[in-house]
Design a protein that fits this description.
Bound molecules: zinc ion
Order of helices and strands: EEHEHHEHEH
Strand content: 15-25%
Low-confidence stretches: 49-53, 58-63, 65-75
Largest sheet: 3 strands, antiparallel
Mean pLDDT: 76
Radius of gyration: 16 Å
Strand order of the largest sheet: 2-1-3
Distance between the termini: 38 Å
Number of helices: 5
Helix content: 25-40%
Number of strands: 5
Length: 150
């Protein structure tokens, strides 16, 4: 298992697990790896330099890089928040919320037990990793589950 930081052509960042570099390349060349924010399939590995810090403050530049470098969660209504809100709308409109049954259902579809359809839901870190290990194409979403209780 290998974890890659991915970046789409529009600068959206994701982290995801893959079985191998090979498996990753296959998903990309098959166009099966798409950006959850803008939907492009033009994804590539982000430069592997997670600990690089900027040598100077550059607050006005490159808002598209804000998601990772500027502490998304602390900035209300920034571009990242709006992108997340849009992402949530799109996901809820176009796929079924299967909640905590996600891992089970994703695997059933992958195995051909049930017809494939777009779903989203919750999976534990271990479940998500197990799915990726078995070659089930899943992507983590930068969203928290909606608070359904109270
Ligand atoms: Zn994107």
């Amino acid at each position: 298992m290998i974890q890659f930081s991915l970046r789409c052509e529009n600068g959206h960042d994701f982290d995801s697990w893959f079985k191998s570099t090979d498996a990753f390349e296959k998903l990309v060349s098959a166009g099966m790896l798409t950006c959850a924010v803008c939907g492009t399939s033009n994804m590539k590995k982000a430069p592997m330099a997670p600990r690089v810090t900027a040598g100077r403050r550059d607050d006005d530049a490159a808002p598209r890089d804000g998601a990772r470098s500027r502490g998304t969660l602390a900035t209300p209504d920034g571009p990242a928040q709006q992108a997340l809100a849009e992402l949530r709308r799109r996901i809820e409109a176009h796929s079924d919320d299967v909640g905590r049954d996600f891992a089970h259902q994703a695997r059933a579809m992958h195995d051909g037990v049930t017809p494939a359809r777009p779903i989203h839901g919750e999976a534990s870190h271990d479940e998500a990793r197990a799915l990726a290990e078995d070659g089930v194409p899943v992507l983590p979403l930068p969203l928290r589950p909606r608070d359904k209780s109270n």
